[in-house]
Each structure stands twice: as C-alpha cells, then as structure tokens.
Amino acid sequence: MIYLDNAATTKTAPEVVEAMLPYFTERFGNPSTIYGPGTEAKKAVNEARRILADALGAKQEEIYFTAGGSEADNWALKAAADAFRDKGKHIITTKIEHHAILHTCEYLEKQGFEVTYLPVDQDGLVDPEAVRAAIRPDTILISVMLANNEIGTIEPVGQIGEIARENGILFHTDAVQAFGQIPINVDQLHIDMLSASAHKLNGPKGIGMLYIRTGVKIRSLIHGGSQERNRRAGTENVPGIVGFGAAVSRAVRIMEEKIQKETALRDYLIERVEKEIPYCRLNGHRTQRLPGNANFAFRFIEGESMLIMLDMKGICASSGSACTSGSLDPSHVLLAIGLKHEIAHGSLRITLSEENTREEMDVVVEELKKIVQKLRDMSPLYQDFMARQENRD
Ligand SMILES: *Cc1c(COP(=O)(O)O)cnc(C)c1O
User: Fold this and answer.
1) 208-212 and 63-66: which strand pairing?
2) pTM of the predicted model, to two decimals?
3) Contacts of 180 (CB under 8 A, 6+ apart)
4) Cβ of 200 below 6 Å from ligand 1
5) What ligand 1 atom has the least distance to the C-alpha of 70?
6) Same fold? 13-251, 255-392
7) Taking a C-beta distance cutoff of 8 angstroms, is the pair 285, 294 a contact?
8) Which of 59, 72, 277, 311 has the fewest Cβ atoms within 10 angstroms?
9) Cα 174 to Cα 69: distance, rounded to the nearest angstrom
10) How many other CB atoms are there within 10 angstroms of residue 14's CB atom?
11) Is there an atom of ligand 1 within 6 Å of 149 CB?
12) How far is the CA of 250 from the centre of ligand 1 (A)?
C-alpha cells in the first residue's frame, strides 16, 4: 500500500503508541484524584501541556485539551461570539475554511451573527488588506486558517494577526494542518486562539487542543467538572493527551528533516506530473504551501473514478469532488480559487509523510498516467476536445 492521504489522517507513530500504553493499564488513574495513579496521570497531562506550549511559544496554562480539532474550532467561535455579543455581532472568516469553521459560522448566523466570508485569489491566498477592509465597528472576531487542508496554501496569518491586534479584535486560527508540519509561534503571528489536532501529526484520533491567550475571556463550551481550569469539563483523555504530547515532541524533533524531505518529494512529483500528463494544473500556491501537499486538477476526468482506480493499485489519495459524502458539489475550496465545476471534479489531492519515497512517487506517476489516459479515452468531452484540436491544425 502507498498511503498518500496524510491530510485526512496520519499513522500513529510507534513511539507515540508506546508512550500511551501505560496510561491504559498501570497508570490508569483519574488526574483529579490525589493518590498514586491519579497524580501520575496528572503529571503526565501537565508534561504534555508543557510540550505543546513550548512548541507554540505559549505558556502552559494557555493550552486546553479538547476532543479534537472540530471541538476546538467550535469552542473558539461559539465562545468568542457569546463573550462579545454585547460589543458586536460581526465575524470575519474566509471561503476556504474547514467545515468545522464554516458550519459553525452558519450556525452563528442563525443565532443573529453576521459573517463575512472573504474570497481568496487563484492560489488560495487571503489578502490581509481585504481583512482590514472588512473590519467594522461591530467586528468581534477574525478567524483565518494557517494552512488549507485541500490545496496546502499557507496563509499570511502573521499580517492578518497584526491587523486584528491593531483594531483590538480577537484573532483565531485553525492550525490543524500546519501544527507539527511548519514552525508556529503564537506571539510572532499575533494569534489569540489556535486550534490543533493530534491525529494530523502522527498522534491518536479524538484529542486536540485550543490555545487561548492569557486575558482572552471566553468561557467553557462543555460544562461539568472543573477540569482544564474550569474551561473544559470532562475527565481528561489521559492516554490521548500523553500521545498528543509524544507526537508533538516527535514532530518538533524531526521537523527540519521532514520539511526538507517532503518538499523535495512534493516538487519532484509536481514536476513529473506537470511534464508528463497533459491538460493538468497545480491547485494552490506553488511555494507558499505545506511541504507534503500536492493537489492537481486533470481536465476531462472524474476524481472519484481516479481514486477508485488508484485504490485498485494500492494507492490511497483523496479527491476534490465529494461524491462519496453524498453531494455532487465539488469542494468549496476548489470553487473559491476559481475552478469551474467540471475541472474541480477532476482534482486529486496527494499528501505525503516523511516515510514516503521517490520510488513511490515514480509508481504513482506511472499509474496516474495510465489511469488518466484510460478515463479520458472513455470521456466524450475529451473526444470532442481532441477532435476540435485536430480540426484546428
Ligand atoms: C482535520 C481538520 C479539522 C478537524 O479536526 P478533527 O480532529 O478531525 O476534528 C479541522 N480543521 C482542519 C483544517 C483540518 O484539517
């Protein structure tokens, strides 16, 4: 199997699993208790919190564990809206956010908030000046993702954070795709709140975090006990938290090497695909993109068919059409960068890990060439197009 869908989820690293195991068995205690196994668990939770804080340039007490990236996004937006509703009801975000942000914004619109969804350019970049221009006296929150999960574009979050700060507006970023992949410092980027998730960086599923800068007064989303300094109730997912800590410490340790390796593989793949497969384009910014992300649009192709045929060859990837989720609409991200429906449907997302090799890229390119040709040979649109090309000559 060649696994090329690391933006969907990653394999839990063996050292992460190993770090987690004792917290299911001998160190099973509830961190809120005062005897041996409980205090051991509490120590481990705080150690993980320290690792996460250090990785972000934050303070330990600014890290709150959640049940994943989606919960962190929901919390940031809903709680900020709730805390500042007397000041105003306007929120600024973008058209290319993850559904955890977009669907939360739609929910808030139903609650009487107004949301501006900023457009992006053809590379998927948000213009910081457009953020500035969208600010109103009643704007209470700006949320712009750090890196996009489909096209990999890295947003100018530092500039946007600075604009938010100048205007006294809270700034949240969904860093789920970026955390552990590229360096992040919450002070340098002027971030007030940041969402992350362990399973996107070789940690376990179902554990995430929200960074909340000291002084940001938002309340709890999950009510109950006094865990997480009264801000997120529920007995801690101790093995998950320990796994998240181990995954982040691993990610920090290997980051430089991982970035170099994945960038080289990504660029090799992009170069070969662009050179060897006609009528194809790269989606997303060519250089301002996540090291492991390549996203292509192949004309005259149905992405889902491409995925099925790749799967038959043992290759796991993802597409920009959403047939599998029961919708015929292509991805909102691909539409936002200006792709026509039929072209967006022919998109393929390949997301790498540090374990992928050049040989695997060669296999993928060779298989893709065959698959694309086969599908085009069956496509009436392609036949028409070719006939017109010939007539022109
Ligand atoms: C995966 C992802 C999420 C959701 O995280 P979960 O931990 O799966 O809930 C949110 N935002 C982005 C950008 C993602 O890639």
Assistant:
1) antiparallel
2) 0.97
3) 55, 196, 200, 201, 202, 247, 248, 251, 252, 255
4) yes
5) 9
6) no
7) no
8) 311
9) 8
10) 9
11) yes
12) 20
Q: What is the pLDDT along the chain (393 residues), one digit of tens a residue?
A: 999 999 999 999 999 999 999 999 999 999 999 998 899 999 999 999 999 999 999 999 999 999 999 999 999 999 999 999 999 999 999 999 999 999 999 999 999 999 999 999 999 999 999 999 999 999 999 999 999 999 999 999 999 999 999 999 999 999 999 999 999 999 999 999 999 999 999 999 999 999 999 999 999 999 999 999 999 999 999 999 999 999 999 999 999 999 999 999 999 999 999 999 999 999 999 999 999 999 999 999 989 999 999 999 999 999 866 555 556 678 999 999 999 998 999 999 999 999 999 999 999 999 999 999 999 999 999 999 999 988 876
Q: Which amino acid appears at position 333 of this protein?
A: V
194 - beta bridge partners? 173, 211
DSSP 147: B
Distance (angstroms) between ligand 1 centre and the Cα of 287 equals 23
**What does the alpha-carbon distance between residue 5 and residue 72 come to, in Å, rounded to a whole number?**
22
β-strands 2-3, 114-118: how paired? unpaired
What is the topology classification, in CATH, of domain 255-392? Answer: Aspartate Aminotransferase, domain 1 (3.90.1150)
Q: Please report which residue ranges of the chain form alpha helices under DSSP H.
A: 14-20, 36-56, 69-83, 99-110, 128-134, 157-166, 227-230, 238-276, 303-312, 332-336, 341-344, 358-377, 380-392
Domain ranges of the chain: 13-251, 255-392
3-state secondary structure 238-291: HHHHHHHHHHHHHHHHHHHHHHHHHHHHHHHHHHHHHHHCCCEEECCCCCCECC
Residue 323 appears among annotated catalytic residues = yes
Q: What is the CATH number of domain 13-251?
A: 3.40.640.10
197 lines ligand 1 (CB under 6 A): yes
Q: Which bin fits 225, alpha (ψ -120 to 50), beta or left (φ > 0)?
A: beta
Greatest alpha-carbon span in the chain: 83
Region for 149 from its dihedrals, namely left if φ exceeds 0, alpha if ψ lies in -120 to 50, beta otherwise: alpha
